[in-house]
Specification:
Blueprint (H helix, E strand, L loop, with lengths): L10 E9 L8 H10 L3 E10 L10 H14 L3 E4 L5 H11 L2 E3 L1 H12 L3 H15 L26 H36 L4 E6 L5 H9 L16 E7 L3 E7 L9 H6 L1 H8 L3 E7 L5 H14 L7 E6 L10 E4 L5 E5 L8 H13 L2 E8 L4 H9 L3 E6 L5 E8 H10 L8
Parallel strand pairs: 1-2, 1-3, 3-4, 5-7, 5-8, 8-9, 9-11
Antiparallel strand pairs: 6-7, 10-11, 12-14, 13-14
Helix pairs in contact: 1-4, 4-5, 5-6
């Protein structure tokens, strides 16, 4: 690895810039949660009010001196900024403060590096780290800083910086090839589910909204759950039986966050594609969060970026157990289509309503009815069996096949459209 991330338990001085531009403003409470999730020990929080970032340090020279004194006083090993820093600003701050400096992107990358467990997750994290650190390579090797000529001074023909960049490019290409293979494997899995007519329901939402708790509640999967940001990083998929609908595939994905670094969105595109290719999205929302509406918009921004904003979506307002006198309920639109479900994944309240809503939303494109075929339509009857669409069968007094059918409407129409059976019940 070219990137050396902080060890857990390090003493950290936090710097929270308060920007006049709301679009650039980061959340102070969320910043502290990120720091704790990374395993750092916050020793002091310094607020720096800025109209515009300073080109050299991002904050003013007086504030830099205040941070330097805090570092000395607390013997801090790292300074964490709640904002994105340029490579130059990060380098200047490290020289001035004489300790490591990480910006918000570097902090999130560190958390991801700690959480990755699967082969795919580790590849995606390393890709994001290398792309981030590639802009921060500096000439740290003075003895190889220049190409020299003369006896005993001729080097390999490139500086140490050039060597590092070349090795970075090679490693980036290697990871990209491996992730491309992972993407193809996921595509094959999705195509197999589509051929088997099994719908996919993907959980999406702001980090720590309770997606994994809900996932466990629905599937008994036992995935890792912790009250911290980005507790779930690696995607998990389980089969779920829904009454009145049949089997669906439920996918748990990585949580989103405001101003999610673009490098992470790119690196995790193979994983996030599960959301873009889903039949139905469950947008899980922390109903008790005071920034609930802002978090919803941040998730919608990422969904637009990965082109998942056109996937049918059901809003799931979670953690109603933390809201006084809030009971589970199912909200519908004017056409009676489920739009919002209020649940508690922790207690299980409202989960039955959620399953009912999932069934209704997915059954909109499903046929679930009785079909009568004359005895002469044995070939058509066999085709319904080949599709796995026959739930029950009986024979009427008139000798007709009475089939209880459940299948996608387009396949149903296609089969009947070839040769509509002469029965007047449909």
């Amino acid at each position: 690895m070219f990137f050396e991330r902080p060890d857990s338990g390090e003493r950290a001085v936090l710097v929270h810039p308060e920007m006049s531009d709301e679009a650039q403003q980061e959340d102070r409470r969320e910043f502290k949660e990120l720091v704790l999730s990374a395993g750092a020990e916050p020793v002091e929080l310094i607020v720096a009010r800025r109209q515009h970032p300073n080109a050299k340090f991002f904050v003013g020279s007086g504030k830099v001196e205040e941070v330097r004194q805090a570092v000395i006083e607390h013997e801090a090993e790292v300074v964490l900024f709640n904002h994105a820093l340029t490579a130059t600003q990060e380098r200047n701050l490290e020289q001035e403060l004489q300790c490591r400096v990480l910006d918000r992107t570097g902090l999130i990358l560190d958390i991801f590096a700690q959480r990755a467990r699967t082969y795919e997750g580790k590849l995606q994290v390393e890709l994001a780290q290398l792309e981030h650190v590639s802009t921060r390579l500096i000439r740290g090797w003075t003895h190889l800083e220049r190409q020299k000529g003369g006896i005993g001074l001729r080097g390999p023909g490139e500086t140490q910086l050039e060597t590092d960049r070349r090795l970075l490019r090679v490693r980036l290409k290697t990871i990209a090839r491996k992730l491309e293979r992972v993407r193809k494997q996921r595509d094959q899995g999705r195509q197999s589910r589509q051929r088997a007519e099994i719908p996919t329901v993907s959980l999406a939402g702001y980090t720590n909204a309770g997606k994994s708790t809900l996932f466990n509640r629905l599937t008994d999967a036992g995935v890792y759950v912790q009250d911290q940001l980005f507790a779930t990083l690696d995607p998990t998929m389980r089969r779920l039986e829904v009454d009145g609908l049949g089997p669906v595939v439920l996918a748990d994905t990585v949580g989103f966050i405001r101003h999610l670094p673009h490098k992470l969105v790119e690196a995790f595109r193979a994983t996030l594609q599960e959301a873009a290719e889903a039949t139905l999205l469950l947008h899980v929302i922390d109903a008790a969060d005071e920034n609930r509406d802002e978090n919803i918009e941040q998730v919608n921004d990422v969904l637009r970026e990965i082109k998942a904003d056109e996937v049918p979506c059901l809003l799931v307002y979670n953690k109603i157990d933390l809201i006084d006198e809030k009971l589970p309920r199912l909200d519908r639109d004017e056409q009676g289509v489920p739009q919002r479900v209020w649940v508690s994944a922790e207690t299980g309240a409202g989960v039955d309503l959620l399953l009912e809503a999932i069934c209704e939303r997915l059954a909109g494109d499903m046929v679930n009815e009785e079909l009568r075929l004359p005895s002469s339509e044995g070939r058509l009857r066999a085709k319904f069996y080949q599709q796995g669409a026959v739930l029950e069968e009986s024979v009427s007094e008139q000798g007709e096949f009475v089939l209880q059918i459940r299948m996608p409407r387009q396949d149903y129409d296609r089969l009947l459209g070839r040769k509509p059976p002469p029965v007047d019940n449909w």
